[in-house]
Design a protein that fits this description.
about 10% strand, two-stranded antiparallel sheet, about 475 residues, alpha+beta, six-stranded mixed beta sheet, 3 domains
Length: about 475
């Protein structure tokens, strides 16, 4: 590795320009605590899923795989439930910790089964039948795995990339995830070329001219940087993948996320669900940790984070890195028209409330004086269904309901379609899903909304009750 590249990693002067506290300090902190950036699945648990997957779909048996054991979308005619045991379904939804490939149509797998018609969908201009298409796809997967096996011997990234960047029916991000599952100690659990390039530029400050084209050569460069660092070289690829993604600032991560026109968010209502009743009765979602003045005009992520640190000097950096992304998402990435799911935790409930965001976070009708410039950090929400059983959600959403923290981005258009499908199944009309309240009804609702009390707010914010009582609003 060039001395210049080494300097890019270790130089404190260089990393001060990043939207993170300090790269060297973050490396040290993550090395001591794998939950430094917040809760993540452990490598041990992730590898249990990996081991079961490769046992069920052995690399040397890929060519013997049946089409219905591969495709996503197969529905059991007796139960009406989607088959969650197939190669593609499990690759996308049951391999937590191995990187996401959601947000793109199912044709990314080369072939899939349409849920409505239960007919195979594939490239009919290229193949005469689904059997011919699937035979080619199996051969492509086999080629990928054989090429990866050879890579474990020669470690030749350019030779490897020349094959894997070629023409495939399976899209590149899916190819990348397949490789990371079958060879987790050789490849990274990151599958977006744009995101990897963004990490090289932003986290390691690598000049564009030093970044190769193509996802796999970029992954190779990341691993080169990892193995040149005295601390990171001891990490597994799993840990390194977690670190480089989570070490980016919330703003950077959300930029690479490329939020869709409609998104789905998970928002909680306080510890053990203490704020659920207020959220449902007052038609709101909220984020706590109030009281840092001037945050609504701080659109620069670095300044935003530093402002939080200045106003919460006793908070540990672990808390800052966990909390700030939630607040940032709630304020600047969540938007009117997005769907929100609220897990109901009181009395060990197995229900989830689903709603739609109706307003910006500056909700002037909800105690604007309470947090000074913070304005309460509420968002008006129309609850579409307050009692959705958790069993209605697929594995991907169900797992996220157990995550700790306040705000999580669950997905874009694909996730929105899933939520709409669940609501339709439970009797929520298309009008309720796709149309918000008209302005007249919204104004009437705001005028008749139950006033927010101190007792309400102590359940939905971290601000001490003494601070609440100081507000002239009460």
């Amino acid at each position: 590795m060039h001395h210049q590249d080494k300097k890019l990693i270790e130089s404190k002067e260089e990393t001060e320009n990043l939207n993170i506290i300090n790269l060297e300090e973050s490396i040290s902190a993550f090395d001591k605590n794998r939950s430094f950036f917040g809760p993540v699945i452990s490598e041990e648990d992730a590898m249990k899923s990996q081991s079961q997957f490769v046992s069920d779909f052995p690399a040397d048996k890929i060519l013997e795989l049946n089409i219905d054991d591969y495709v996503a979308g197969i529905v059991d005619p007796n139960t009406g439930q989607t088959d969650r045991s197939t190669f593609c379904y499990r690759l996308e939804y049951a391999m937590e910790g191995f990187g996401g490939i959601g947000g793109t149509p199912a044709i990314k797998f080369g072939i899939y089964c349409d849920k409505e018609s239960q007919k195979y969908v594939y490239d009919k201009e290229k193949y005469d039948s689904p059997e011919a298409a699937f035979k080619a796809i199996k051969s492509q997967i086999y080629l990928m795995l054989q090429t990866a096996k050879q890579f474990t011997v020669d470690k030749d990234w350019r030779k490897f990339a020349q094959v894997l960047e070629g023409e495939f029916d399976i899209q590149r991000h899916v190819r990348s995830k397949i490789l990371s599952v079958y060879y987790p100690y050789e490849f990274l659990q990151m599958h977006s070329s744009k995101a990897v390039e963004h990490i090289l530029e932003s986290l390691f400050q690598l000049p564009k001219e030093q970044i190769d084209k193509g996802l796999f050569l970029k992954q190779g460069k990341l691993l080169e940087l990892k193995n040149a660092d005295p601390v990171m070289k001891e990490w597994s690829n799993f840990d390194f993948s977690t670190f480089i993604w989570r070490a980016l600032s919330p703003k950077q991560i959300n930029e690479t996320r490329q939020l869709d026109k409609e998104s789905v968010w998970l928002v909680r209502a306080g510890s053990k669900g203490v704020g659920e009743q207020q959220a449902l009765e007052k038609n709101i979602v909220s984020v706590g940790y109030g009281g840092f003045e001037g945050f609504d005009s701080t659109k620069d992520n670095k300044a935003f984070k530093q402002n939080f640190i200045d106003l919460h000097p006793k908070d540990k950096i672990e808390s800052v890195n966990r909390i700030v992304p939630h607040i940032w998402d709630f304020l600047f990435n969540m938007k009117k028209g997005d769907f929100v799911v609220l897990p109901l935790l009181r009395e060990n409930s197995r229900l989830v409330a689903v709603g739609k965001i109706e307003g910006d976070y500056q909700d002037n009708d909800l105690s604007p004086e309470l947090f000074h410039s913070e304005k309460g950090a509420f968002r008006s929400t129309k609850w579409l269904k307050k009692d959705v059983p958790r069993s209605e959600f697929d594995d991907n959403i169900a797992k996220s309901l157990g995550y700790r923290g306040t705000v999580y981005y669950l997905g874009g258009s694909v996730m929105v379609d899933k939520i709409k499908g669940i609501l339709k199944k439970l009797g929520v009309s298309e009008i309720d899903i796709d149309e918000g309240l008209d302005d007249t009804l919204k104004n009437q609702q705001m005028k008749t909304r139950i006033p927010v009390t101190i007792e309400d707010l102590t359940k939905t914010t971290y601000l001490p009750i003494e601070k609440l009582k100081e507000s002239k609003h009460f």
